[in-house]
Amino acid sequence: LKMSWLWLYLPLHLLMATCLCHSIKAPTTNSQQSFKSNLFNFYHSLILADGKETTIHLLKDIPKRYYFVLEEGRALAPFSITVTPCDVPIEWSILVYKPPPGKAAPGDHDTQEVSKSHKASSMVSTIFNYKGNSVETYMGMSSHSALYLLEFLSTERDTHITVYLTTDTTSGHLYPELPGDPRIDVIGIGHSTVTLAWKHSPSVLQHSEGIQYCLLVNEKHNYKSLCAAETAIRSSGMKLPPTVALSLSPYLLEPQQVMILSNSELSIINKVSSGEVRQVCMGTKNTYTVPNLSPSTQYYFDVFIVNLLTNASAAYTGTFARTLEEPEPQVTELKDGKVVHVVLDGKKKTFYSLQYQARHKKIHFTFQLCRGQIQVDITRNGKTVASENLSGLRYFSLKGKLLDIYSVQLRSTEESNSSVKVLASPHFHKPLFPLLPESLKIKSFSKLRTCRSVTIAWLGTQEESKYCVYRKRIEEDQIWRELQSADRCSGPESRHKSEKVLCKYFYDLNLQRAVTTETIKGLEAGTLYLFDVYLFGPSGIPVRYHSKVVKTRKKC
């Protein structure tokens, strides 16, 4: 029987049977077992698509095999295979299955006779193999007289990889091109910033549309591919939609994610157990200053050139840098009974330090949070005695020795500016701040709302104090700004006189009855109003209740 080159296109089970029938010489027992094993591998393989990136899931210690057959037409045809591990190192190899001995390729008229002693087991040979987690590309030439088998194995754990086979090596690439020198240069380091630069990708210079650079910042290590980075983030216990950073699609972010869009740059900050992981896409700019980093911290930086149309990417050689140590903060001395107003810049993430030397055994610290969120840490002679996030008005009573040194460190926990008033005093029985009720919330009564009036209520204390009510007409789109930007330390002096409604005194020794109500009249129908209540103590320092927004009825 003479075998034609149609064998390349036969179903695999027929191909195997044909190959077995046409062995020139019966193999020995060992070679026969090896031969049958190789045929079995081909039989239990999947076809690998040409010109398409294929995602392959691997189970631990279980090999997975794919094969491909190239188009007929040329005696020699180039092809390339790119394998991208997305997690742990893998093993992969390329095996070639040659036609049975003595069978000629089409157009090959001078094929020499193959020795009859050639064993069937030699028809399968390994032409490439690799172990590791780097992106690896194999480029070869096919003689059309062979069928190729790719074998993949993960010995560490279940994982996934991507594989790209192409026989069209002349009309462009799926993956964006890297420059001749793919290193990332660190050109500037500060306390909270690192400036990076890299050489342009040829893909950006040739096709600027649909191509952009994306930067990944983390505190763990560099990643050799974008899919490896995304896998690591997902394994930290969170869901990461990768195309949010890459294609700017309006995905709904997870609670652990923060998306920041400014100056045409999209940043995604993922809160994971090993610190922050940031993805920033900056278009075709090849320099970038990473902001808001922590001082004296080592960060790893990876740049990926991404094709937004195909979602394919190529990785520059990652780098790392350590931010500079924070200089010793300037220390402000606290004096008995003197209020210090501290404003903190959230973007710089710096500490503000206050120091107090005790002249009495018992010391009282008072903090009035004016705006934002602030973390306070109090140490006595170098040992921490109190630490918490401030909320509203907070008192700390501490007992020590004469001449103890107390240090107070304040830090904003959000990116916007925060501010706080601080008081240290040994005399708690004569506080500058008023006695506070259990809650500083203002309540409104929906059933008592009319088109022209609103009824509100708030809690008082056992101490007779002065309460002033203010109102302000606002629009729907102003609510969030008014509530977020409110300075809880500012008093009525910052308000317009026309916003004042009334002032009243009241108290009740029975805290269960220490509540007052007020009906504010003369309002407009279907209108939003912002209501504020200010509480004044003996010293005249005000405390502002939480603002309340109420809308009058449209129809009555």
From TrEMBL:
Task: Return the GO cellular component terms, semicolon-separated.
Answer: extracellular region
Which compartment or compartments is the protein found in? Secreted
Task: Please classify the protein's predominant subcellular localization into one broad category.
Answer: secreted
GO molecular function terms noted in the UniProt entry: heparin binding
The secretion signal range is 1-21
The record's Pfam families line, in alphabetical order, gives:
NDNF, NDNF_C, NDNF_N
Please describe what this protein does.
Secretory protein that plays a role in various cellular processes. Acts as a chemorepellent acting on gonadotropin-releasing hormone (GnRH) expressing neurons regulating their migration to the hypothalamus. Also promotes neuron migration, growth and survival as well as neurite outgrowth and is involved in the development of the olfactory system. May also act through the regulation of growth factors activity and downstream signaling. Also regulates extracellular matrix assembly and cell adhesiveness.
Name of the protein in its database record: Protein NDNF
Q: Which organism is it from?
A: Emberiza fucata
